[in-house]
Every structure is written in C-alpha cells, then in structure tokens.
Write a sequence for this structure.
C-alpha cells in the first residue's frame, strides 16, 4: 500500500481493513487480445435504399413459407395436440385472405380452426391441447377477417365461438388481474374487449367490462406507458394499436395531441443507422424491430409525417440486411413479420422520408412513482401517475445520415422493467456499427452497465435494494441537453448514487461524428475509502492497449439471447466493422482493469468489464472526477490516436482535453464549473463548456455554453459559436 | 448386521482387487444400530423401549414416547472412530403426534457424543433437530461429521420432549449406520462456483470492494457498521447434484485471527435432509489475518436430497469477508453404491 494512502486510512481509523497494492482479480489483457473475435476481412451489407410496402410483403411472405409447411399437420388423422398452433396458423391464413381476397387462404384457415375444434371435442391428454385466454385475441381477428369468406360458414363460426367459450370460462382474477399502463394489463384488457365483442354475454362479462374500462381510462388519463424497455414498450404498442381498433376509438386516438407526443418520443429513440437500441429488460439489440416498423408506418400515415417514414424504413433496412436468420427466433422473425404484414396494410408510400429536426435532445415522459411493495400486492398497480413529467433519455445524433454517430443515455425515473441504472450509456453507434450497448435482460448489477463503479472497501451500509422493486437509489436530480451546433453537451446529476450518500455528475460532450467525452464527478457526504471510476461493457479488446487506454469493438455479430445467464443465443444481427478507443484521462493511482466474466456466463452479450479503477480515500463533500474519451475509428490499432490525446487540465471542476481524430483534425474540449474564468497557456474562457475544432491549423468550428469569451491563441473565437439550443421532446400533462 | 451388508462384504472382497466396483462401501461401525440384538449396547432412558412390532425393514426398532411433561431419551451403542476423520451417519426414523400446526412445541433431537480413550464424553459441540412435524413414513436422515481431537468413539443421544400441554408423541429409530467416509477431490471433476455478491447473502451485510476477491468484490460483515449476526452467504438452493460425495470450499477472510470464539459457522442445508454437515471456523484456523483462505465442508447427496444450500453464518465481532463458495466433486455414486449406502 502506498504510504500516503495508508497514513490517510490510519487517520480515518481504517487500518484494520488494509488494501493490497494490486488487484489480482483482473484478467490479463494480452490474453483477452489473443482470444478477441477478429473482424472478417470483408463484411458486405446490402442496403434496401427504397423500402416500400413491397418490402414488407416480401418479408412476411418469406415468413409465411414456414407457416405454409404446417399445412402438413392438416393431413394427420388426429389433430396435432397444440391448440395455439392451430389458432396461430388460422390467424396467418385469415390475415392473408383479408389482404389478398384469395379464398385458398380462407379455406386453410378454416381447416386449422376445425383441427382446433377437434381438440375441444375429444381432448387429448397434452396440456397445450386446451385453449387459453390469449387465443381470444387471435380468434377475434380470425372471425373478423374471415367474415366475407364463403369458407367461413355457420359451422366454422360455431367452432370459433366454442373455442372462445373454453378459452375464457371466467374472469382470470388473482395474479393475472393487474392494472397500469403496462404491457401485461394491456394484453389482458385487449383480451377482455375481444371477448366482449365476440361474446357479449360471456361469463363475467360485467367484470371484464369494468376491468377493460379501468385499464383504458387509466392509460388515457396518462397517455403514456409506465414501462421503460425497448421490448415491453413494443409489446405495449402492439397491444395498444390492436386495442384501439377493437374498441373503435382509432379516430379519437390518432387525432389526440398527447398521443402524438408519445409517438414522438419513440421516434427519437431510433439511431440514424436504423437500429432500435436495447433498453433494460429485453433479449437484446433491436429485438422488436418489426413492431416499431409497424408503429412508425402507422404514425407516418395518420400524421402524414415523413419523419416516421424515415424511422420505419431505416429500421427495416437495418434489420433485414443484418439479421443472420429470420426464422431463428420468434421475436425477430415471425413476430416481426406479423407486424410487417400490418405495416404493409397501413403504409402510405406517397409520404416521403424526412429527417428529424433535432440532433441533441432531452426526452421526457409522464412522471410515475413506484408504489410500496405491500401496496402493489394489495392493488395490483405498480405505479402512481404523478403531475408533471420526468426525464427519460438523453439523445445525441450527428445527423440523419446512416453513418452518423449516435449516443443514448438513460436518465429515466421510476419505470417498469427498467434497470434503473442511471446514467448508463445505452448505445453508442457510428458508421453503422454498435460500439457500446446494454447487457442482458437479467444483468442488473451496476457493474453490468456503462456507469461508474462505486464501492467502498469497508462494508458501509449503503442501500443495495434491487432496483426492480425499490427505486430510491440513483435518483435523477437534474438533467439537461444542449445542442451547441458542432457538438452537443448534456449532463445528468444523480443523487443517492448506487445507494451511497453520494452524488454523481455525468457530463457528456458529444463532438458530432467524431468523439464523445464523458466526465464523471462524484461527491460523497461521508468520507470513505472507495474504489470507483468509469466502466464500460465491451465484447472484444485489441489489437492494442496502453496504461490508460484500450481499443475495443463489438465484433461481427450482435447476439440476442434468452433472459438468463448462459441461456442460448437466439438471433444475431451483423455489425459493421468499427473500433472504439476507450481512453481514460490519467489519474494518480488510476488503473486500467479488464475483468472477463465469460466463465460465469458463457453466452454473455458483453462479457468484459473495462474500467478505470481509482482507489481513493474520498473526503466528505470533496468531489473527485474521472474522464473518458471515446473515439470511434476504422478497425485496427488505436495507439496513434491515444498518443495524440493531450490532457492539459484534469481536475474535478475543470478539464481541458485535446485530441486528434482519425482524419487528423484537432479538437479541444474545455469544461469549467469552478465559477471562475479559466486561463491556461494560449486559452482563456469564462464558459462552462467550450469546444473548438482545428483543421489544418485553423479554427473552423466552435461550440460554447455558459460564457461569452473563448480566447485561443490570442483570438476570441466565441463569435463563431452558434447559440445553444435546449431541445426537449416532452409530453403534455 | 443387516442382510445386505452380510451379503455385500464377501462380494466386495471378491471384486475389490479386480477393480470391478468403483469404490468399496465402507463398513458400518455402529454395533446393533438396527436393534437386531434388542437393546444390547443401548442406554434407554425414560420413555424409551424396544418396539418389537415395527422397524424399517423388520419388526425391531427403538421407540421414544413423550407424554406431556415427560421427556424421553436414549443413547446408542458406541461406534469406533478416529479423530479428524469424517463419518457418514445414517439413520431412519418415523414419528407420530408432534407439534400441532404452527405450534412447534414438540421437539426431537439427536446429539453426537464423542468419547475419548478413557470413555469420557468430550464436550458437546452441538445438537441436531428432527423435523417439528410428524413423519408417518420411514425417513432417511444422513449426516456427515468429523471426529474431533481425542475422539475414539461416537454415540448418538436421542431425545423427544415438549411442553406440559403438548400432545403425546412417538418416534421410532432404526438402522443407524456409521461409516468412515474418506475422499478427495476428483481430478477433472465438475465444479460449481457461486459468486456470493451476486445476491446470495442476507440483508445485514453489503457487497464491498475487495481487490483480493474474485471479480474484485466480496460480501463484508464489519462490526464498525453492524453487529447483527446473520448469513454472509446462503440462499443458493442449488438443484440437480447427482448422489455422491462433494465438498464445498468457502473462500473466507477475517481481519483478526487472535480471538478464540468462532467467527463464522459453515453448514450444508438441504431440502429433504435439512442440515447435512456443519462446522465452526475458529480464528486460529486462519493462517493470516486479511488473507483469503479456503475452508472445506464435505457433504453427501442422496437420491432424495433435493436442493442444497451452503451457508456461512457470521457470528459478529471480527470483520469477515466471503467472495465465493465452490462445490467440487469427490465421487459420484453409482446406483449400486447409492443403494448400498442409503437404502
């Protein structure tokens, strides 16, 4: 142990918990470099530059081919003992009949219905042979779509009614009865309204009606969801779009201003390259692409808004050209195709794509607070809608070009299925490559996320309550986003960080299409001996690294898998070759550490913890800081980039960092929260945030916030800066 | 001696040299554990008697009868043991009466009594309980114990007791066997590592940074912040271990090795057999303060064991860390071995 630290510990009465000088738990980086997955020499990814209704028809036709194969089962003397199988096939064929008018599809649909009905008449012992309430949704649509068909005569209609009656013999009280503006209550309410349409006198009809109206009225008051996850939000939207049709409120829904604001939020989630980022509880990157494509096509048509068309087309282009195998996983395959069939119907190809207007924005949502657990159990409602809004995400885009750089940071408050790991980097993408993303569904430890680690060596009784149940930890206190023109600036101040009496201030300078600087400043109200510092989840490292930097990359494939550790990979999206230099501004005693967790989780999406660990005896209310510079670049060595980073000033309240990008352009970033003007050799400014770009010896771009002077080499360049714009994508309340 | 043992021994002797069986079944060291010779060697106390009407496989067993306010007890014959060696103790029991629902007012226990060369009982280090509720069917009850220093024999003391208003209850005990169970870690055997900071600890303690620990973090109990005793590790409930011999390796560290009182108690709990093995870890067993050391706790899994949980209980006073519990195979039993040992 270094003697100064030891003296400090002794003075704090902590000598009994002595620290070793070296961390033996870290992985040998050379070994990790050796086993890194190499980029292939060539990854040729085609682009569907002209996505249209025909594109959707091609995709779902491709998926239908696998469904067609199931007609084989119609020839069996005994029906295949799985009720959902038959109803699902009936639905696909009924939908195709509805779209094409081809009676052949209707006949097949009716045959599957007959098989399903046979399972009711002579029930086989298999547990899946009997219907469940979820089938009512499908039977509603089958019945609706087949209405004009000659094949759907009196007898098949009786079969439908018989299966419906068996599917919902009563209101499913107990665990299923759940309230809120969330996917599970929406699904049940949708089932309820489908049932009431099909069978108005169904058992417990009054109870069903009361339930569906309660769920609808609650959501309509909020006009928002209480969940924050890419996957469950997609399911929620899917149910919602079906539900408005079943309830017959489409006109009112699409005309509503607040609904439109809700859609706007999700529009701003889409990366320029077309992927929908992985957020919290989800099987992985872009998993619900088909649902979002449908949602945005519906928005484009109803709002006559080309921005949604742009988003839908980007998503489809990204997804179909990068998915390894469309049929390997239901969510990315058949489920997506089902939604594309709807997208086909709703899409209006006369609407032209149009880029979004904002490049840097704070996204907000309605404010919810998690109920106490006892109250949740008593009321089956997880969240209370509060007046006002709360932050949701910070987004930074380098433009709308498919190669533009994108960054998304989670600043959401209480929300269902959220990992609540604020302010984690959810996505960093550039040149159509995923550079930073989220870990798996059940990876819910702080170290599974792209946020600073914070742990004391003493066993201080901080709040370790799992975030899914109680969200008093890592509370967002303040958050901003400013578009400075050539750069974006944002910050999030997080209180009670990871359960400690500590505040984390994360500042982000997003140099558009060049690099990202992230400065984390931590202030604890108690003096503790901490190990803390920035952490990023990574899949591969190499080919080189240094004492305070490492080159990283995702690799050729982005896996999606089931929710638990070691569970199988279900689908993969192909990634474009791009590397990311992760450069940590040198700190005294700071140490680059990489921990390989693949032994504990063989199919981990991002098995490597790349962290810059600072072991510091933190004094009460005295901030400490750590800064990361992230520079995307073409695959290969990052040494030349790392060598050209110059950290002129690196203190908790003041930073000045220069670097050269892969094109040889020089950049300077200054952060100054000292309250005093900053004066360094050749640099003076009173700004809180200042950025300058030096191309071929000349300053050609400047960004400035919180000040009026920015003197470089004796010349005040503040006048070159555009006025900062604080863009907020919000919802009325 | 039971019939199967009488039959098996010559077979074992025959095949052992040829290596036809993976491992010999160690002999049963408990004389008259099946009450085949009545109460010979037994010391029945009040409420204890030979029941000649029922037994696990025959019509002989020890019956303890509790009548309200009157404790019943008995002590078994002694099995020869060697200090420091491990012994698999297996018995069968069934019971009637016992606690009414929610009352937990009738208890039955079995306590290992270790004797020195002079026949004197060594200080009792702990007892074990049977379930509070009655078990109508014959139930297998395995334990793995280590003979303490100076022990040369082991006896089992049984007791059945309750309150004055408790209901009359009976317990039958039969087929006690004591077998020396040697073993070592199987080369190339399977390992299961449980990283304790991943949720396998009680709310009393916290995950703390620890540069010596696996993945850099450990669960730390520090009296500076709490002296509430509790489980440093537990709630693992691992399922699916095949019948066999295993050892759990607890990776522990304490800040002060000078004390005398146990800092941590280790045990193996299970779904069907409750606590299978346990031991206290004394400060003096650590070679150094603030240095991780592995402490092994051997255990057996029968075909009926169900989930297994390995626990480390902090007894307060001294800062203590745990980062992992690793379970390693010693030997996986064949069906024949399982039957020979446990049926």
């Amino acid at each position: 142990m270094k003697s100064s630290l030891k003296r400090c510990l002794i003075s704090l009465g902590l000598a009994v918990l002595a620290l070793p000088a070296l961390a033996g738990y870290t992985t040998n980086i050379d070994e990790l470099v050796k086993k890194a997955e190499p980029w292939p020499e060539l990854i040729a990814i085609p682009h569907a530059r002209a996505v249209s209704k025909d594109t959707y028809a091609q995709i779902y036709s491709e998926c239908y081919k696998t469904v067609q194969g199931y007609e084989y089962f119609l020839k069996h003397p005994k029906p295949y003992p799985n009720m959902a199988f038959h109803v699902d096939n009936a639905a696909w064929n009924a939908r195709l009949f509805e779209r094409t008018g081809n009676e052949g599809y209707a006949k097949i649909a009716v045959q599957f219905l007959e098989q399903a009905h046979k399972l009711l008449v002579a029930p086989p012992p298999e547990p899946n042979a009997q219907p469940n309430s979820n089938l009512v949704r499908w039977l509603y649509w089958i019945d609706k779509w087949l209405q004009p068909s000659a094949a759907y005569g009196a007898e098949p209609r009786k079969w439908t009614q018989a299966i419906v009656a068996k599917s919902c013999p009563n209101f499913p009280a107990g665990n299923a009865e759940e309230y809120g503006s969330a996917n599970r209550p929406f699904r049940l309410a949708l089932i309820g309204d489908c049932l009431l349409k099909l069978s108005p006198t169904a058992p417990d009809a009054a109870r069903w009606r009361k339930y569906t109206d309660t769920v609808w009225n609650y959501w309509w008051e909020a006009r928002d969801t209480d969940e924050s996850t890419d996957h469950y939000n997609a399911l929620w939207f899917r149910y919602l779009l079906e539900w408005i049709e079943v309830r017959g409120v489409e006109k009112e829904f699409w005309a509503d201003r607040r609904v439109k604001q809700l859609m706007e939020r999700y529009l701003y989630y889409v990366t320029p390259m077309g992927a929908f980022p992985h957020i919290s509880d989800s099987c992985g990157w872009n998993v619900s692409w088909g649902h979002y494509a449908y949602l945005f096509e519906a928005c484009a048509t109803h709002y006559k808004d080309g921005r949604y068309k742009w988003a839908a087309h980007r998503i489809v282009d990204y997804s179909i050209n990068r998915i390894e195998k469309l049929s390997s996983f239901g969510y990315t395959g058949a489920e997506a195709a089902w939604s594309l069939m709807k997208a086909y119907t709703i899409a209006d190809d006369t609407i032209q794509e149009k880029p979004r207007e904002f490049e840097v924005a704070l996204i907000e949502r309605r404010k919810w607070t998690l109920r106490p657990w006892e109250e949740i159990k008593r009321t089956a409602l997880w969240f209370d809608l509060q007046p006002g809004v709360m932050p949701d995400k910070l987004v930074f885009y380098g433009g709308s070009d498919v190669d533009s750089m994108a960054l998304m940071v989670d600043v959401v408050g209480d929300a269902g299925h959220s990992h609540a790991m604020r302010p984690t980097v959810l996505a960093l993408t550039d040149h159509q490559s995923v550079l930073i993303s989220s870990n798996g569904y059940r990876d819910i430890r702080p170290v599974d996320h792209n946020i600073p680690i914070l742990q004391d060596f003493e066993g201080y009784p901080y709040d370790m309550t799992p975030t899914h149940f109680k969200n008093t930890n890592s509370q967002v206190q303040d958050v901003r986003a400013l578009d400075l023109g050539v750069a974006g600036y944002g910050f999030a101040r997080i209180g009670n960080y990871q359960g400690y009496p500590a505040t984390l201030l994360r500042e982000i300078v997003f140099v558009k299409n060049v690099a990202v600087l992230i400065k984390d400043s931590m202030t604890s109200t108690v003096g503790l001996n901490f190990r803390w510092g920035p952490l990023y989840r990574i899949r591969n490292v190499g080919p080189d690294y240094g004492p305070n930097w490492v080159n990283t990359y995702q690799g050729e494939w982005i896996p999606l898998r089931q929710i638990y550790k070691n569970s199988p990979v279900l689908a993969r999206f192909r990634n474009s070759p791009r590397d990311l230099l992760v450069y940590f501004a040198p700190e005294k005693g700071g140490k680059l550490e990489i921990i390989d967790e693949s032994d504990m989780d063989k199919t981990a999406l991002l098995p490597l913890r790349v962290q810059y660990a600072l072991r510091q005896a933190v004094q009460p209310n005295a901030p400490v800081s750590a800064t990361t510079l992230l520079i995307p670049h073409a695959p290969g060595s990052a040494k030349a980039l790392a060598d050209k980073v110059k950290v002129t000033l690196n203190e908790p309240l003041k930073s000045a960092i220069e670097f050269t990008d892969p094109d040889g352009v020089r950049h300077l970033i200054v952060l100054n929260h000292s309250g005093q003007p900053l004066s360094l050799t050749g640099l003076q400014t009173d700004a809180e945030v200042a950025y300058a770009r030096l191309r071929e010896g000349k300053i050609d771009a400047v960004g400035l916030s919180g000040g009026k002077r920015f003197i470089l080499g004796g010349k005040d360049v503040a006048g070159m800066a555009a006025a900062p714009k604080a863009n907020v994508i919000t919802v009325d309340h | 001696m039971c019939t199967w043992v009488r039959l098996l021994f010559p077979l074992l002797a025959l095949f052992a040299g040829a290596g036809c069986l993976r491992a010999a079944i160690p002999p049963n060291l408990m004389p008259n554990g099946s009450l085949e010779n009545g109460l010979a060697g037994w010391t029945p106390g009040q409420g204890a008697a030979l029941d000649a009407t029922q037994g696990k496989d025959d019509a002989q067993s020890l019956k303890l009868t509790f009548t309200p306010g009157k404790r019943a007890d008995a002590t078994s014959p002694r099995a020869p043991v060697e200090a420091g060696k491990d012994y698999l103790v297996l018995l069968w029991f069934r019971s009637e009466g016992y606690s009414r629902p929610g009352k937990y007012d009738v208890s039955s226990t079995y306590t290992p009594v270790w004797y020195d060369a002079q026949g004197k009982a060594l200080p009792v280090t702990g007892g074990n309980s049977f379930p509070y509720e009655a078990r109508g069917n014959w139930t297998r009850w395995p334990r793995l114990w280590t003979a303490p220093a100076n022990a040369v024999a082991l006896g089992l003391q049984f007791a059945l007791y309750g309150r004055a208003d408790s209901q009359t209850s009976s317990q039958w005990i039969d087929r006690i066997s004591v077998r020396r169970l040697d073993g070592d870690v199987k080369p190339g055997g399977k390992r299961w590592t449980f990283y304790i900071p991943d949720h396998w600890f009680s709310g009393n303690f916290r995950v703390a940074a620890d540069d010596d620990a696996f993945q850099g973090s450990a669960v730390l109990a520090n009296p500076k912040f709490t002296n509430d005793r509790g489980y440093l590790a537990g709630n693992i409930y691992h399922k699916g271990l095949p019948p066999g011999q295993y050892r759990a390796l607890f990776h522990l560290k304490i800040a002060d090795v000078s004390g005398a009182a146990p800092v941590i108690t280790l045990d193996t709990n299970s779904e069907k057999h409750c606590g299978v093995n346990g031991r206290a870890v004394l400060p003096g067993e650590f070679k150094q303060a603030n240095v991780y050391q592995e402490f092994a706790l051997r255990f057996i899994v029968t075909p009926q064991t169900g989930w297994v949980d390995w626990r480390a209980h902090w007894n307060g006073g001294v800062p203590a860390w745990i980062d992992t519990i690793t379970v390693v195979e010693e030997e996986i039993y064949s069906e024949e071995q399982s039957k020979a040992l446990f049926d």
About this structure: The radius of gyration of chain B is 21 Å. Helices of chain B lie at 3-16, 335-342.
